[in-house]
């Protein structure tokens, strides 16, 4: 049984978000930001499936032998009940790369969709959003019928899909397009109507459990910022920049996501755009936290990790271990789970 979530608070989600915005504005006023050193998505899923996720993930009894060959298992996403993890597996061998499912302990691995990436479970656990990089379109996989259908079909680069909590709408980014198309869009799945809600170079949108806030990465010049805004039916409110990449010497941030109480934002940051050769690049995972006392903090969780995601009860994160581009680091390029409280972590995917 999980005894407590991380960073407990007695405030409502809306109150915590307002504290977070207020703290960011105060720091902006004084030209500083609380920056312990931060670094690098996912829509905060909640429990709506019949089986309650009442215990955290468990370690497998037997640990397979260490690996040395660098592979890529990335973009993991937990099902709302915590039982199943969807993720992207990249391999050089033909017919292997694509969207996979496995149990939360790493067992029962199965291949789902060729070339599928960036999976996101629906809040009800009955569908999975994903993108196909080769055609730049977004799809939905229906679990019951074991079938997929495209929900975008245009000549734009449609990426970064995520759900609204009601399961009736999604958000996504158009990465390359004209001034009239680039930005973050909201798509109603019933009516198929789409509307641009953020008219700038925004990526990796994530909606809070209440559906009233959006966090995303705002690309600014050669860097980026972790930003937040109110969400209204067809628009958003004023954008507040919570963390600037230049303030933490880590210009590029990715994969932000609210936890299911709205108290924390998980994200990755890296300096990849600055450094060649690759061995000088660094990747880290951080939490931006507003604890209700006007003392917002940035906490480093993982040094050497990318594409993090929350467990449904906030007690664990799953991520890809990624320590530079070296080939001989045990577990590099594979999925790991970490207990937020104890910082204990273990590998769950292997060659």
> Helical content, roughly?
under 10%
Distance between the termini: 31 Å
**Number of folding domains?**
1
Rg, rounded, reads: 19 Å
- The average pLDDT is 79
Would you identify the regions where 5 or more consecutive residues have pLDDT less than 50? 1-10, 26-55, 58-70
Report the principal-axis shape: globular
CATH C-level: Mainly Beta
Could you tell me the CATH topology label. Neuraminidase
Explain briefly what this protein structure is:
This protein has one helix at 13-29, and strands at residues 72-78, 84-90, 98-103, 110-114, 116-121, 127-132, 137-142, 147-150, 158-163, 169-174, 183-188, 194-198, 202-207, 213-220, 223-232, 235-236, 240-244, 252-258, 264-270, 283-289, 297-303, 305-310, 316-321, 335-339, 345-347. It is mainly β and 351 residues long.
Fill in the keyword field for this structure.
Neuraminidase; 25 strands; globular
Can you walk me through this structure?
The protein is mainly beta and 351 residues long. Residues 1-10, 26-55 and 58-70 have low confidence and may be disordered. Strand 7 and strand 8 (147-150) form a beta hairpin. It has one helix at residues 13-29, and strands at residues 72-78, 84-90, 98-103, 110-114, 116-121, 127-132, 137-142, 147-150, 158-163, 169-174, 183-188, 194-198, 202-207, 213-220, 223-232, 235-236, 240-244, 252-258, 264-270, 283-289, 297-303, 305-310, 316-321, 335-339, 345-347. The protein has one domain (13-347): Neuraminidase. Helix content is 5%, strand content 42%. The longest helix is centred in the N-terminal third of the chain and has 17 residues, at 13-29. The strands form six sheets. Strands 13, 14, 15, 16 and 17 form a five-stranded antiparallel β-sheet that branches. It has a four-stranded antiparallel β-sheet with strand order 1-2-3-4, with no helix packed on it.
